[in-house]
Amino acid sequence: MSEIKIVLDQVLKSRNISVNELARITGIRYETVYNLANGKVERVSLPHLARIMAALELTAITNVLIYEAAALPEDPLDDPIELLDLPPAVFYPLRRCYYQKTDTIRDLLGADLKKVPGIGPKHRETIRLALEKYRS
Question: Is there a contact between 46 and 71 (Cβ–Cβ < 8 Å)?
């Protein structure tokens, strides 16, 4: 899966600055800076990021954040069902179905959609058309 990584720890090491010192310079809580530096956060506050970049005199966001793209699957049947661009009324019941795995196109092709709660005849037709469009 693609992800954005925080590489603040590498910047701090290269500049010989401790997390404690960066927290003091920026006025951001030590715990917050520590979690950012150790990649233990799911979200980044833009004002915090701006203060850190200003304190470290960084001009490019890529000095702190790196985007790592996931490798594309070899087999198109292993593509995630998100690529079908299904409407939410169809997509969410498929994702919530706990007894039939429907994460990939292959899973969807092998699933018994009549047994998926919330998926009726119109939804099955929508899925069929989306699969047909995706294959072409």
Answer: no
Distance CA 118, CA 65 (A): 40
Phi, psi of 50 (to 5 degrees): -65, -40
Question: Per this entry, what is the length of the chain?
Answer: 136
Q: What is the pLDDT of residue 74?
A: 75
pLDDT digits (tens, 9 = 90+) for 33-60: 999 999 898 889 999 999 999 999 999 9
